[in-house]
Amino acid sequence: MDKLEKKSITKSKILNYVINNKITSKTELAKELGLSMPTVLTNVNELMDKGVLVETGEYESTGGRKAKSLEINPSHRYAMGIVITANHVGMVLVNLKCEIEKVERTRLKFSTDMSYCTKLSQMTKHFLKNMKNQGRLLGIGISIPGIINQKENLIIKSHALQVENFSLSFLEQAFPFPVYFENDANAAMLAEDLHQYQNAIYLSLNNTLGGAFCIDGHLFPGQNQKAGEFGHMILVPNGKTCYCGKHGCADAYCAASVLTDGTQYTLEQFMKQVEQNDPAAMNKWEKYLNDLAILISNLRMAYDMDMILGGEVGGYLSDYMIPLGEKVLSYNGFDHDIRYLKNCSYKKEASAVGAAKHFLYEFIKNIS
Ligand SMILES: [Zn+2]
């Protein structure tokens, strides 16, 4: 490893530490990262000269004189995330601190026509219109509900978009920025702090049920990019028909659409009914939590990892961890608590945030 490479790794380490701890000091960096004070000073000064780090006020350390606190300069770089679904497009602008600065959701039916591309390109231009310095935008991460071959920019299969072996090159060409495609559940998992989790499962409880998992802080794609397709594990033999054509898949019991199907309600309206103790809604919710508890219990038995509850339903579950936990414990004789169940960090547009974060991670990894 040459000197420059070593310096770059030290800088990435420092930036990752600051991102994960929000605020820190030079003394703390030296102590926590096992670096000498001169090394910290040189690298921090270089990062401050570049405008990546900023000193902000004083940092309360344990005793002694107060140190200057260090933070990431959020506006140093940005990334955009786009989430494509069958009927909507969601857009987010994320800064280097991984904070959402702007979010928009628009109805737009997916199609393989050129007109879809043109529309998406116009919407992106409009979304970024007020951004002062577009040179700071690292790229656009796009979340797709399907199995992706990233090397060849290909959707191998997407039930939601109804395409198979579909090239994404036409979409890539619609943007004047680097583009990165990611499966929606993988992207949602990337939105979480993978340094914190290391090994975890992500359950994406949207209108279809997606899943992902990371091992040693990295997404695990599987041999054919299909790892984490928990939605099509059989939960009830010969049960309800799934959109994939089989019977009894977890998706048919635990997807968000189970709660709203057959009604004109949105999930938000349904959850409001549950809050207001509407008997029919409560009954449906109770049954849903029970089916979800079976799925959670099975996955916990197989993987013995933390499990992040994400997606649209995941955003509401933080208020229902007690009834869910009781049900999970009744199916699982091996765990005595449900501390491994975690609530997702981004309640809305997690997949767009995660796809955008790809560029922020790359920026930090390759900083010199
Ligand atoms: Zn299925």
Largest sheet: spatial strand order: 5-4-3-6-10
Choose one word for the global shape: globular
CATH topology of the largest domain: Nucleotidyltransferase, domain 5
Number of domains: 3
What's the helical proportion of residues?
Answer: 25-40%
User: Strand content of the residues, in percent?
Assistant: 15-25%
Biggest pleated-sheet summary: 5 strands, mixed
Q: How many individual helices?
A: 14
At the first level of CATH, the class of the largest domain is Alpha Beta
Low-confidence parts: none
Bound small-molecule species: zinc ion
Distance between termini? 14 Å
Rg estimate, integer Å = 22 Å
How many strand units? 15
What are the key terms here?
5-stranded mixed sheet, 40% helix, Nucleotidyltransferase, domain 5, single chain, alpha/beta, binds zinc ion, globular, 368 residues, Arc Repressor Mutant, subunit A
